[in-house]
Target: NifU family protein
Amino acid sequence: MTHDVAATGERIERLIAELTGEGARAGAEELVREVVGLYGAGLERVMAIVTEAGAAGALRGLVEDPLVSGLLVLHDLHPLTTAERVRAALDGHPAELVSVEDGVVRLRLEGSCGCPSSRVTVTESIERAIARAAPEVTRVDVESAVTLLQIGRRPS
Model:
């Protein structure tokens, strides 16, 4: 079974929503909070032990693992900021990070051919990369770099 933090969270919310009766739903929510809190506390200890040991290679391995990285974000333990993770996700994509604010990432596409289908494909690829690296991002706004047509004076 593949474990995707965001997908698992959505499944848990769907299962809780399917419970009938306010008591059952409240009990399930409390159970999930307790389990998530327990795993978060354990993960916090893992991060402290790895950091105290100066094990940079182990820390890098933890943050590069998609599942562990997602859990670190969930528990606000990821050593990289949202902007740093978005920049890393943009590596190899023709885009520049403009800003990250309140869960909204603003990007500027670079070197686009102007073809609408190409822009959509590139934008979707970028959005997937950002969702994997920074699941807390709620929206990605993409603007294209504007290339002005240079018109010179008529030769005299």
User: Anything to note?
Assistant: Residues 47 and 100 are 25 Å apart (CA to CA).
